[in-house]
Amino acid sequence: MEADAAVSSGPPSSQDLAAIQDEEVLNKMLDKAVDFEERRMLRAALRELLKSKRDKREKDRGSRQEDLRQQGLNQRGPPGLFPGVGRGSTKQQPSQCSPPSTCLYLYYSDTSARSPTATAPNTKSVKQMLLDWCRAKTEPYEGVNIKNFSSSWSDGIAFCALVHRFFPEAFEYSTLNPNKRRDNFELAFTTAEKLANCPPLLDVDDLLRMAEPDWKCVYTYIQEFYRCLVEKGLVKTKKRP
Fold first, then answer.
1. Are the C-beta atoms of residues 122 and 113 closer than 8 Å to each other?
2. Domain parsing of the chain, residue ranges
3. N or C: which end of the chain has fewer CB within 10 A?
4. Rounded Cα–Cα distance for residues 33 and 50 (Å)
5. Averaged pLDDT for residues 151-155
6. Whole-number pLDDT of residue 124
7. CA-to-CA distance for 178 and 133, rounded, in angstroms?
């Protein structure tokens, strides 16, 4: 009811937006807004809300870390419990990319990805549309800058942001750490599977072996995620990008 009331009311002021502490409310307002200035204000408000939550989590995490140090317990804690603690990085990233990924796109019926020469004009158009959609949906999220279907997704944060955009109550985005790639990939894919019925077409171990994901893997997965959102009525258009 609170979200519907906020969405249906008149154009909000910056003070009104600053008072909203619910990401879902801001997301709904952003979906319905058509005025450029109103959308700009909404995106700014959402960025500030996410930043304030992240800052609060970082402050709380720092306090907990200091308490553990004082109690002499940090050496017995699980590795990687806090960002910046050396014990978190138990594996070194390879200096070079591993061989091509064996992710499930090889077995997924995506002829546009497998036969670029046969459908090059349409594939390029569809690919760009999907990339623009991802960029628009994740624009308010700090730490996300989607430029392609490869390096932009390498730390898992972009996947989490895209999933969080449609399921803001599923997890706290501000707590995510870009250095914890496995955690980010697993969180995004598990949440998408549970709430959007999106099959986990990407293999986390494959993604971790490469400095940058295979773009065809990411492209195919995002296509499937979009299709699942359409089926659940969370994306307005029925036209698949």
1. no
2. 2-76, 102-231
3. N
4. 20
5. 96
6. 61
7. 22
Task: Give the pLDDT band (50/70/90) at residue 20.
Answer: confident
- What is the CATH number that goes with domain 102-231? 1.10.418.10
Distances (CA, A) of 131 to 119, 218, 227: 18, 11, 14
Nearest to 53 by CA among 98, 22, 91, 12: 22
Q: Which of 31, 62, 39 is nearest to 236 (CA)?
A: 31
Per-residue pLDDT at 103 exceeds 60: no
Q: What is the DSSP string of 140-201?
A: TSTT----SSSGGGTTSHHHHHHHHHH-TTSS-GGG--TT-HHHHHHHHHHHHHHHH-----
Distance from CA of residue 149 to its chain's centroid?
Answer: 13
Scan for tokens 């997924």, then name that residue: 108
Contacts of 55 (CB under 8 A, 6+ apart): 174
Half-sphere exposure of 145 (CA within 13 A, CB side): 1
In single-letter form, the type of residue at position 91 comes to K
Q: At what angle do helices 215-231 and 157-166 cross, to 10 degrees?
A: 10
On the question of pLDDT at 181 being above 80, the answer is yes
